[in-house]
Amino acid sequence: MSSTSPAVRVSGATEPEIMKTLAVSAVIWQLMLNVMLLHYHSTAQKIEIGILYDLVKFSAPMFIFAIAFDLAKLRDTHYSHYVWHKTKEIIGPYLAWTAVYMIAFNAGHYSTIWSVVKGILLGGAAPQLWYTIMMFQIHLLLPLLTGLVFFLLKNKKNTIGVIIITIIIYAGLIAWYSIYAFHNQEHPGWVQWDRLLFMFGIYAVLGVIASTYNQQWRALVERIRWWALPVGALLFILVNHELFSFGLDTLNLLDASYLKWSMVLFNITLIIIVYGFTVSLINTGSKSLQHFKFIAKYAFRAYLASYFALQLTVALIGDYFSEIPLGLNLLITFGITAFFSFAIVYIVEWICKKIMALFRKSSLPTSQQTTTQDNVVGSEALAKNSIVNSRNTSAARDK
């Protein structure tokens, strides 16, 4: 989920970067739709909310695929340094935003030390934070992913074996979760097994395979992406049917579980379709690539801030929130929330850079500060002389 992508940048943005921006958008939509369900209660509105929610349920799988795709490119990385870097990059902001959510909203009713610790470990301070807990684990498993890459490169035929073993193991996990964790009234906490990466491991393996044999993967996607559209449409109908079978009167978006085969197949199909879309953008040199690149840079931090931004948006719209037609409200709320999410992290980054610059300046010895200032003045003087000389030369040439 990091904004840093080790993949080679052929143009403005890489395939994983584009996929991460779409995944962040999906997270914001999921948060919005949960809020909308509290304000819109007609049957038609609930159906619309449920359909849209199933459509954007690709966020975590696509993040995992994109991160694994990037990690498979790494070679000879010092593991302890890498983990320390990712801890600062991911866990640092996560803890800061967890503190903000616990203080500002206290959504988990944190009244004891254990409840605070549990909220931090399980990502319960805001609805979207559990993603971070789950996705950070993929960085801890870098040696395992690297070993998988070498195993795949040893012999192309190993890919088939890896796929078969992954499907068998994952089928067992899905079966266990469906029977023992999903809707378990006696042990409701078991549903939080989705915080563990291996519950989404099939997307990590797919990302590694796609990255390791990228040319073959691209060729495969280009051959089947149009066939994936009708298949995706049929799977989309199936996941919607499953969600609404629980009843519209008591519609709960948590019933749209990631961990069921219909949703897994639907998400894999979406990954194929979206990857094909990213390849087309890159091959055509689309001007939108630069925008995707900028968004990908702040994607992780904007995701952390998204629930805070959503609460600001709802407060800003105020009493009119429930009176706006659902479709229009979705567009308005998404636009404002997305803007707030990225604006907040951009401003925070700017403030942090200014503070760090002041600390670095104050930590320098006085003599070094004077020397630095003299160098700056001297550089400015040289720059001015250079500009003047350039202008004089241009004027003489024109004459």
Q: How large is the share of residues in beta strands?
A: under 5%
Distance from first to last alpha carbon: 59 Å
Total strand count, please? 0
SS field, number of helical segments: 14
Order of helices and strands: HHHHHHHHHHHHHH
Q: Can you give the mean pLDDT?
A: 85
Structural class: mainly alpha
User: Helix content range of the residues, please?
Assistant: over 70%
- Contiguous uncertain segments of 5+ residues: 1-11, 375-384, 386-399
Assembly state of the chains shown: single chain
Supply the number of structural domains: 2
* Anisotropy-based shape: globular
Radius of gyration, whole Å: 25 Å
Briefly, what is this?
The chain contains 14 helices and no strands. With 399 residues, the protein is mostly helical.
Structure commentary:
Its main location: membrane. The protein has 399 residues and is mainly alpha-helical. It folds into 2 domains: 15-352, no CATH class; 364-398. The protein is 76% helix and 0% strand. The longest helix has 38 residues, at 326-363. The model is unreliable at 1-11, 375-384 and 386-399 (pLDDT under 50).
